[in-house]
Amino acid sequence: MRTFVIGDIHGGLLALEQVLKRAEVTTQDTLIFLGDYVDGWSQSAEVIDFLIEFKKTQNCIFIRGNHDQLALDWLENRHEDLDEEMWYKHGGKATVEGYSKISPERKKEHIAFFESLKDYYLDDENRLFVHAGFTNLNGVVWEYFPKLFYWDRTLWESALALDPNLKPDDLYYPKRFTVYKEIYIGHTPVTRIGETVPINKACVWNVDTGAAFKGPLTIMNVDTKEFWQSEPLNELYSNEKGRN
């Protein structure tokens, strides 16, 4: 049995199907999805349909992304935390257009899926899987602001800025990077630093390889670090803009 982690999908069902095939995923494998299933390409609703069916035969763990929470707020007509204009600009428009074509019954199933998402997952080897990050120096259990599990960017920014010569027992080594054996995140695409493959800094692995934009979707074996990628999403959806 293998354990895979999958980066941000952003409505790219074609890419998801590609990476599952390329990694030769079987029903014996465990898949950990890091969130942001929607907003970007045109198949957000279809991605959720696929995942709902997929988990019936596959051991899956679904983490909540910020775009998933935004979509849920919209579906449930909660607007206190939803800036619709900003959301539309960052992929929400494609989600709204996609959901205009599905039945109320399917919408209810999707709402139940979004509500079932986990803030994070911690495995038996002390490896943390979370969409964005956390801020409490003692770890996720002590986080004061749960929304940061799917909004934080300071964890990744700190990992990028960390002096590689610092050791975990050094006085100035960030305590957040000593709590877990490894941390797997998405949320902030590595394309921002000119990369399109998973990047490791300190104990943090960023698996968001820019599928919302012009990068590929990535699936990675968390034990071996071998990874497989789809074609760039702007090529799979050549008639769409995505979030570009």
UniProtKB/TrEMBL annotation:
Coiled coil: none
Taxonomic superkingdom: Bacteria
GO biological process, one term: RNA decapping
Protein name: Serine/threonine protein phosphatase
CDD domains with a match to the protein in the record: MPP_PPP_family
SUPFAM superfamilies for this protein: Metallo-dependent phosphatases (SSF56300)
GO molecular function: bis(5'-nucleosyl)-tetraphosphatase (symmetrical) activity; phosphatase activity
Record GO cellular component, one term: cytoplasm
Database matches in InterPro entries: Ap4A_hydrolase, Calcineurin-like_PHP, Metallo-depent_PP-like
UniProt organism field: Flavobacterium panici
Name of one Pfam family that matches: Metallophos
Domain Calcineurin-like phosphoesterase: 1-189
